[in-house]
Amino acid sequence: MSANEYKIGVIGGTGMYKIQEGRDIDGLQLGRIGRKEVAFLPRHGRSHSMPPHMVPYKKNIEKLANIGVERIISTTAVGSLRADYKPGDFVITDQFINMTHGRDDTFFHDKVVHVSTAFPYCEEMRRIAVDSAKELGYSFHGNGTVVVVNGPRFSTTAESRVFRGMGADIINMTQYPEVALAREKALCYLNISVVTDYDSGVEGREEGPVSYGDVEETFAHNLDRMSKLLSEIINRTDSRRGCGCASALDSAVKA
Pick the catalytic residue: 89, 94, 169, 197? Predict the structure, then answer.
């Protein structure tokens, strides 16, 4: 396996566990999406055996970084906290609010490193994603703040109201610490979310409480659209990075 071949890594979330063609090596599926070689990693395992609070986030990011991946595209299922973020919509996330606890969220335990996450998602990749979604004619939101909770339970209606009051648009259980760990490895990180349901307590919505079956079913209905979007993004991605993600550690390490 050449470290130079696989510059793009894809982390598949709920409902996305493999790519069509590829060979398995050390928990990664190596193959092609669109016209380029990619390293694919199913976040929850091929059989969705790992709940969100047990995902080996550090191991996953390190595994991709170690084979030379420079850009990560992650897919996630999210609940909506706003009536206008509808099931089936795509969200190109640009901010997160971390409400998780107990997760090992840094590679740096033996030295002082203060990495900036003011703009945690790669802006260059986000622009490519926006252009790709427009080209495909998808219903999407070019911005979105995700609140990340520990799980595995879904929110109470009171929590949902609080999260909406904090300014969150969508809710998820896995984007953190994945996005922060990617920044610590100076990798580009793009998230593409699919809204699968309205979270508890969304004003103006009369749906009952969300179930895992609802989430999985909605994502499955959008899997083909997600695959097309990934292919479009990957084909549009240049081999050279024009963003600042590669220099994320330059001013973060204590002298």
Answer: 197
Q: Is residue 255 part of a domain?
A: no
What CATH number did the domain enclosing 172 receive? Answer: 3.40.50.1580
In tens, the pLDDT along 231-240 reads 999 999 988 9
Closest CA relative to residue 69, chosen from 225, 175, 190: 190
199 is catalytic: yes
Q: Is 2 a member of any domain?
A: no
Residue 137's domain spans which residues?
Answer: 8-247
253 assigned to some structural domain? no
Is 169 designated active site? no
d(CA 194, CA 17): 15
In the set 199, 224, 238, 250, the catalytic residue is: 199
pLDDT at residue 33, rounded to an integer? 85
Q: What is the DSSP letter of 172?
A: E
Q: Is 60 part of a structural domain of the chain?
A: yes
* Strand positions, DSSP E, the chain: 8-12, 22-25, 28-33, 36-42, 71-80, 90-92, 95-98, 140-141, 145-148, 170-172, 188-198
Number of folded domains in the chain?
A: 1
The per-residue pLDDT for 117 is: 96
Is the pTM above the cut of 0.90?
Answer: yes
